[in-house]
Design a protein that fits this description.
It contains six helices and six strands; from the N terminus they run αββαααββαββα. It is mostly helical. Strands 1-2 form a two-stranded antiparallel sheet. Strands 3-4 form a two-stranded antiparallel ribbon. Strands 5-6 form a two-stranded antiparallel sheet. A hairpin with a 4-residue loop joins β3 (about 100-105) and β4 (about 110-115). The structure holds zinc ion (ZN).
Length: about 180
């Protein structure tokens, strides 16, 4: 199984959990175990810690569908579907965070806490990340990887960035170009 691409905006990391591989599109959040593995790679989701079960998957998958629809509409320069924006709002509303204040012995601490089961809390956190992403002016620079069969999306920190990852697609594309140029007729 391919490792998920992480390190982009959290909401894009979520969209990027359905990469295109030699075996077609795969779902890197297909099972509770996959979700647990992905969570372990996402420090931003640590406050929602817990061991996911199969029941936690549908809310996370639903948010992913909505972010995917909105992001791809923006990539095409069109209006994101109303249902996607409404779905994200509803997911965030289902488990809003309240900061729980405490005293750690020397200072007051504030830890965001959400109600509900893990899947609903994760969906709410991811929907909030999506709201940040979709309203960020940088969304205008959103790009899809230029490799032919790659569907990864990213916000390029550098305007010349063309690949989702230099190791995943950059090298592959360079090798393909090399063989194209040196192909025996
Ligand atoms: Zn790529």
């Amino acid at each position: 199984m391919t490792d998920p691409l992480t390190g982009e905006h959290l909401a894009l990391d979520l969209v990027n959990t359905r990469p295109s591989t030699e075996d077609g599109r795969v779902d890197l959040l297909a099972t509770a175990r996959h979700l647990a593995d992905w969570l372990a790679r996402q420090p931003a989701l640590r406050p929602e810690a817990g061991t996911p079960s199969a029941a936690d998957l549908p809310p996370v998958h639903a948010v992913r569908e909505h972010v995917d629809a909105a992001v791809h509409a923006l990539l095409r320069g069109t209006r994101p579907p109303k249902a996607a924006l409404r779905g994200l709002t509803e997911a965030a509303r289902a488990a809003p965070a309240v900061r729980e204040l405490d005293w750690d012995g020397s200072a007051v601490t504030a830890t965001p806490r959400r109600p509900g089961r893990l899947g609903v809390r994760l969906a709410a956190r991811l929907a909030e990340a999506a709201a940040d992403l979709l309203t960020d002016p940088a969304i205008g620079t959103l790009r899809q990887c230029e490799a032919d069969d790659c569907v990864m999306v990213f916000l390029p920190a550098h305007p010349r960035r063309r690949w989702c990852s230099p190791t995943r697609c950059g090298n592959r594309a360079r090798v393909a170009r090399y063989y194209q140029r040196h192909k025996t007729p």
